[in-house]
Design goal:
This protein is mainly alpha-helical. It has one domain. Helices cover 57% and strands 10% of the residues. It has 10 helices and 4 strands. The strands form 2 sheets. A two-stranded antiparallel sheet has the order 1-4. Strands 2-3 form a two-stranded antiparallel ribbon. Helix 2 packs parallel to helix 6, helix 4 packs parallel to helix 8 and helix 8 packs across helix 9. It is globular.
Amino acid sequence: MSLQLVDVGSICTFFSRLLAPTTEHDEATSAPIFDTIVSVLTMLVRLRQDLVTAILPHLTHLLRLLLAALQVPRPHLGPRQLREVSDRLPRFVSVRADATGSLDVDSATILARLFSALISKTTAVQHFGRSAHKDTAASTTTSLVKPLTHHAPAVLLTYLEILSAPLSMLSLDVRNKLEPGIFALCAACGERGRDSIMAGTAGAQLDSSSKLIFKTLWRDFEKQKYVGTG
């Protein structure tokens, strides 16, 4: 709780370096590095939304890098193609042609929880000092949904890029574990964000394959919104 904005900025910079794509990789994948990054970001989102709001562009960049770290090579790639996939991964992820060494469903699960935490309401207590022998404070319940509306489409675009990439993919198990978090991002986008993604004004143009994937994703999101609300 003693963190200052400058501290959070330093944390984001450090995590960006750890998650940056590189041509050099460790001998074995270290899932604890990924999991620790996600855990720290989740705690910040849940406990210090006042600071997170100020660094949402940096957080968005980290969320995109975390998603990219989960991709695995498609089957039967040659050495050169495998290298292309590997070069898009951080140093601590070391994949092989059979996809061994990739981050697993446990990492996908905690990343989905981080995405879900982004739209969850939290109660923050603000202290205003002492008055008449007691501390005065006010509590407010807030979420990041409103400021996140402008940033969530960029994270969804990364997800769509991975799903439609010719050389890499997300395994079915990983996609299933990510689904609650991806739906949370859809909720943060809202209809305006959805339309900007389809129109190509959210940062990238979707090809026909990506548009079909996104339409299916949004339809599934809409369906689960109304489950049990009859």
